[in-house]
Structure formats: structure tokens, C-alpha cells
Amino acid sequence: MAIALGTSATQLKVGAGTVSRVYKGSTAFWDSDAAAYTAAVEAADGQSLELGVVAAYHNFILGCKADGIWDAIKASCILCGARTLAGALVPLAGTAPTNVADGFVSGDYTRGGATPGLQGDGTSYLDSGFSDASVDTDNIHAAVYVSAFPTLSNTRYLGSGVTTAPSSSMQLQHFLSRHWTYNRSRGSYYDTGSRGLGLFGTSRDNSANYDVLSDGVLDSVSDASFSTDGTSFKVFGYASGTGITDAQIAFYSAGEALDLEALGTRVTTLITAIGNAL
Q1: Which pTM value belongs to this model?
Q2: Which of the listed CATH numbers 2.30.30, 3.90.70, 2.60.120, 3.30.1490 matches domain 74-259?
């Protein structure tokens, strides 16, 4: 059930009823996952969120469930909306990522506006803690929402795998002015020929081909899958901290295969709603 702002600054409308921040003490009118996530973000922030941000979280989670893609998301952070970097690193799914290398600081984080998200610096990355061996070889996705392109020419938004052959890589890569992908690929990449802000992702549900969404275009790529090498997904890089990007990223997810177009629509709506609430 979608929610919207109510008649006052402290109320939300849920269906035909109006409630006031009921997720604090009850889930009677709320989805339990949305309530738990919102409460965890506010605890990390040390203060309450705007109701418009709360509504955006709730509607995103309920929308993903309605689309049948929620359970496929095994590791994820919404890197915008929260008041603090600590709040942004609260996991939507899975465990909290580790802030690695030089480390992101509060000044790298923008919660809303034209370019929301966490700004890379070419040296810092997040370790999601989610191994690509946690899902089947032919049942996997990875996605990021890019709010600002990198200035560095050959970097990774997100990926797993190793730098030496033979590797079975999952990578979302920025090369010059194009997006490249690997999905359980062994040295074989797909060049989209372009790039676009918004959701960039890849999803495989069989051994023969996989899907890529970039710049709003969904492509099917013929490429045989290989078994995983069992490394964890890194955000703003891949492997053990290679190809680190200075892009700005507002969302990431990894897990089982899912409908990339549905995820793209939901994430875009989420980030737009957060921007409108701030």
C-alpha cells in the first residue's frame, strides 16, 4: 500500500487512514521491512527523517515487492536520503558495507539535490561483504545508480572478480565515455557503446546470455557463464580494490537475477521522491 504526505507536517496518509510516524512503535499500517529500515537509518542519523523521505523509502520497498524483485536484492544501500553518511551506509539488504582504503567522510556525501549520493575520490571504496559465490552461477545481478560520471577513464562502479586470468568477473565498468559490463564472464566484456546517468546494471538467469541496462536501454548479450571465484562485491571498485572510480553513486544492489527495467523505474522514482522531500 503506497503512502503519501498527510494534512500536516507530522502526518502520512496510508490508504484511507492518516497516521503519525507509526513506524516508531507499530507496524500496523506499515510494511515491516520499510519500518525496520527507516528506524535503523534514523538511529544511525541520531534524528528523525523528513516524512517525505520516509514515504519514499516505504513506497520503494513496497514497489519492489509488488514487482517481484525485492527478494532478489541480497546486498544494497540507498546512498542518499539519510541525514548522515552513517545513515546512508545502513544496509537496505544484507550487511553494512565496510568503508575501505582512505575511507569516505561526511563531506563526500550528498543526501539530495541534482547529484545525490556518495562521491568517489579514486582511492576509497566500499566492500559490500556480499560474496558472488552466495548466489548460483546463472542467477545473479549487480546494479548501481550513477548520479555523476567519473572523470577517471577506466574505473569500476561495482564488481567482483580478480585481476588475473582465468577470472569469472561481475563488473560494471566505465571506460572512456562508454559503459562496459562483465557478467560471470572470463575476459569477455560487453561494450554498450554509450553511457547514461541513472541505473546501470546487469542480470543473468541462464548460462547462455545476460541482460544489461544502461542509459535506459535494455540489451541482451550472448556470453557463456563461468563459475565464480568467490570474491565479494566492491562498490566504487572491484577485486581487492582495483579500478577505483570517482563517480557519484546514489544506490547499489547485488543478488539474484531480477528485472532490471523494474528496478530502474523503482530506483529512479525513489531518488526523485527523496529530492522532492528535501
Answers
A1: 0.92
A2: 2.60.120
